[in-house]
Amino acid sequence: PHRQHADLLRPPVLHIVPALNVPELIPDDDHSYDLVGVPELVAEEPDSWTIGELAEIVNIVRSLADVCGLDEVHEVLDAHEGFSLLPQGKLPFTGREGAKLWDDLATAVAEKWDIVLDAIDELVVVPEIDEAALEETAEELAAFHEESAESEAGVDDEVLTAGSDDIDTVDSDDEDTDDEPVGFWGEVGIDPIKIVTRNNTEYYTLRCYLDDEPVFLGKDGKIDVFPSARALARQLAEPKELGDNDMAEMPTWDDIVAKATSGELEVDVTEDNTYVLAGLEDDIAEGPSAIDPNQLDLAVELILDAADWAGDDAPAEALAESESLGWLVSFVLRPNVNRLEPSPPFDDEVAAWVKLVNALEDRFQVH
Fold first, then answer.
1. Acidic residues: which segments have biased composition (predicted)?
2. Which of 31, 81, 148, 167 has the highest count of CB atoms within 10 angstroms of its CB?
3. 204 and 269 in contact (C-beta within 8 Å)?
4. For residues 227 and 213, what is the distance between their CA atoms, to the nearest angstrom?
């Protein structure tokens, strides 16, 4: 650390700095890091922008900790897996497990980020500055801001003179984007889902979440599934044939039945609600590098959702990191350079996975 301090104090280009003017010393947005705003950042949804900004902040914090020997900062960052996964983008924070990972990260920030800020604050030293130089710099900064404001005003004037028709078009486009409909299924809060089984058979059913708990079309742990979207829509027009089902308790169930009865119901399945179980056991047999993380993440989500709904704890136990299958799944979905990669053969993991998938498919009540 002491040698690194010296490198920072006497870098090869240090002699150039005194000759720079104020604008040249103002960092651009790509080199500005809001450490104080991190708690607000982790309170947001983990979209690509949020994760990207947080990754940049954590990266600069790690660099400062490395250079200045801030062991307490490393302890905070290394104690929570989410910090090390930020450079991988949104993927590790998707799905149910990803949401838990993001929540853990937010909790860590709430409880320990002050340790990071305090450690870095102690590094900051404000030197004595010559009053004349300070006054000259203030004038230079004011002139720079004035020129920038005039430049921006000039750009705004050009936009305004481009014509009111163009402006109306832009406004109209914005309104269309803001008012973009969520669709019928988004309005009722229930999703059609498509499941591709181990033997490539396709089934369709419905699922929703009530207070974050999954609810399927079915009853007593049995999921009503249909060979096509049209077959599902036809059955929804005759709900009495389904008998009692948990989905009927949803407040918007009657809206679905009414639309199906009128023949207007379109069963559209999004990519996020398409679960492909086929091929995963072969990929698991080959090892982590052969597995599609998104396919696996969705499959795990479906297995756990169905088990939660049915009150079955076995899948969650099998997917715990203390189990060989859970360790492999965790490695694929939340990779970490500090973790040891599972090694072949993967016979036990394949057997455990097949058992989970078979248990899921045994729940299907095919119509």
1. 164-181
2. 81
3. yes
4. 26
